[in-house]
Amino acid sequence: MHDWIDYYDSTHTIYVSREHRDEHFRLIADTIIGYISSPDATVLDYACGEALFAAKVADACGKLILAEPAPGVRGRLVARFSPNTKIRVRALDELKYLDAASIDLAVMISVAQYMTPKEFGDALAMMKRLLKPTGRLVVGDILDPKVGTLPDVMALLRFASAHGFLKDALIGLVRTALSDYWTLRQQIGLQRYSEQDMLALLGAAGFVATRAQINVGHNPSRMTFVARHAFERMER
For the chain, which terminal residue's Cβ has fewer other Cβ atoms within 10 angstroms, N or C? Predict the structure, then answer.
């Protein structure tokens, strides 16, 4: 994951335009809000990125913890949200100091593909410790090994057309193909999990999970899973 952290902490970007970036984070924020069960909930956004609309999420819950591994991004989060008393910014390593069973909702969106299987397993173990007995974990934007690059391209173009940055998207696709992002993706690769793989991994980590009908992002060919403590599901 360290190479990807360095990439996202650099001046490079995967977004084709400011509109693309803004609409992406707006959609993610709205989706997270849809999973918040109570205005008093404590929410953890794991590897949150720029989280441009975190204030909107914070308005819908009691406390929002933005956990981000890239130090430069984390610094921008602190500068952007320090006046908001409902938002706390943390490094991933700092999560081990949070109280057990203190989180109502944890989200990991567009994260698993950048982690090694061991890193992902360790993160799931952390989520298991932090979630309340009735808490939920949302793992989103999972890449399916049976789905190639074309659906990603088409999903971006549809998203761009709907939000008015189609020309930028077409130019950006060419630019991305020649960028350090694509080189890094070719060298390191992205982790992909089938639906069965994800359900098994979540089960091994002590959760019961189901696949959500709709992915959290703009790409319907990717997958989202909602997980709870196994014993909590058994009691229902």
Answer: C
Q: What is the CATH number of the domain that holds 73?
A: 3.40.50.150
Q: Quick check: 133 and 229 in contact, CB under 8 A?
A: yes
DSSP letter at 17 equals S
Tens digits of residue pLDDT in 130-189: 999 999 999 999 999 998 888 888 988 998 899 898 888 888 777 766 455 555 555 566
Reduced 3-state DSSP string for 77-124: HHHHHCCCCCEEEECHHHHHHCCCCCEEEEEEECCHHHCCHHHHHHHH
Give the span between the Cα atoms of 69 and 196, in whole angstroms: 28
> How many C-alpha atoms does 27 have within 13 Å on its Cβ side?
20
Check whether 86 has a pLDDT greater than 80: yes
Q: What is the number of structural domains in the chain?
A: 1
The share of the chain scoring above pLDDT 70, in percent, equals: 86
